[in-house]
Design a protein that fits this description.
phosphoprotein; 5-stranded parallel sheet; Response regulator transcription factor; about 220 residues; globular; transcription regulation; Sig_transdc_resp-reg_C-effctor; alpha/beta; Tscrpt_reg_LuxR_C
């Protein structure tokens, strides 16, 4: 089955460019388009895309609020890939905190766009980990957020789960973590699932943001 994508951007040329790049791939299908975040929820419910590629800045409802709305109201929400002009934009970090699964630069090369969609759909690696660290260092609270620290303490991660979370935060995939720890990939998947459940995170991106927000992992 192809990865299905909904494009949301107020610039028709951006949507056309993304559609052309993605539909050139045999394993990706663009199932719809929208010009504003306000149209996302009905389209997500109607089309059930795997991934929503969504502009972070739009006139009526921006990507941050649209992300929150989707995650709050859709029972099985899609992965959300925020599309942005500037990677060090505070809006991008807020979108990740709101629940977005990653971000994509509008100037990205076609191969990078395709890779980002596939990676977010698979959910087994962190997209642009170095940039996420940079955003956390720039916009996260120094020393961590009190509520995030309390949540991390309540999670009571085991020593191995904590190790897996640190490796996730550095951008290692499940296969790379397995090689580093000399365990099977299925074992790593079990540890990742446990970390997500204990942190109340829907995916590894949210778990990593929680790790940075709590000060469990230093963003530098």
């Amino acid at each position: 089955m192809p990865v299905t994508v909904l494009l949301v951007d107020d610039e028709p040329l951006v949507r056309a460019g993304l559609r052309a790049v993605l539909e050139a791939q045999p394993d990706i299908e663009v199932v719809g388009e929208a010009a504003d975040g306000a149209a996302v929820i009905p389209l997500v419910r109607q089309l059930r895309p795997d991934v929503v590629a969504m502009d972070v800045r739009m006139p009526l409802l921006d990507g941050i609020e649209a992300t929150r709305a989707v995650l709050r109201t859709v029972a099985e929400p899609p992965k959300i890939l925020v599309v942005t002009t500037f990677e060090n934009d505070e809006y991008v970090y807020e979108a990740l905190r709101a629940g977005a699964d990653g971000f994509l630069l509008k100037r990205a090369r076609p191969a990078e766009i395709v890779h980002a969609v596939r990676l977010v759909a698979e959910g087994e690696s962190l997209l642009f980990p170095a940039s996420v660290r940079q955003l956390a260092a720039q916009y996260g609270e120094e020393g961590g957020n009190r509520a995030a620290r309390a949540a991390m303490e309540r999670a009571q991660l085991t020593e191995r789960e904590a190790e897996v979370l640190r490796l996730m935060a550095h951008g290692l995939s499940n296969a790379e973590i397995a090689a580093r720890l000399i365990v099977g990939t299925e074992t790593v998947k079990s540890h990742v699932s446990a970390v997500l459940a204990k942190l109340g995170a829907r995916d590894r991106t949210q778990a990593v943001i929680a790790a940075y927000e709590s000060g469990f992992v230093a963003p530098g």
